[in-house]
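Researcher: Good morning. I'm working through a list of sequences from a screen, and I'd like to move beyond sequence-only analysis. For each chain I'm collecting a predicted structure so we can compare shapes side by side. This is the next one on the list. No need for commentary yet; just the structure.
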Amino acid sequence: MKMYLFSDIHGDIEALQKIDQMLERENESFQVVLCGDLMYHGPRNPLPKKYDPAGVAEILNKYAPVIHACRGNCDSEVDQMLLRFPILEDYCEFEWHNTRCIATHGHLEDIDTSNHRWVFSGHTHVPLCQIKEGTFCVNPGSISMPKGKYGVGTYAVIRDFKVELKTLDHELLEVYEWNIIN
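Model: Good morning. Structure tokens for this chain:
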């Protein structure tokens, strides 16, 4: 089973439509992890070119049964009114392939991630994959407001212990593969 990891959509319908088209073509089971900042762009960010929070909610709701999500610093109670999956918790814990996972936006420092094999986060808009003390840490970057060396929207695809960092146009940027015995 695959896991798709997205963060920092910030209401950009055009970026999410590219993701939706990809997920519509997916022919195997998958889960989606959303690391916050789904619909609002925040006071310090410019409006995305195609800003449509209600449209973003409509697309995300199609995948509600397979979504694990947490609140970002730009998400609020009013956003939850449009979504059919919870986003108001600071973190989301779940199991995947018999391993403990936690998703957090990354803007809060007091979340205990020590008992998890996978830690997913966003917030920085910069993709990052690394192992810290036996924990796999993955930040997919942002599909709508990228920062860092790539300058394009990014997301991550995870299968087993292999993480692929891809562009919004689904081009492979980097692969991280860990040979780990559970």
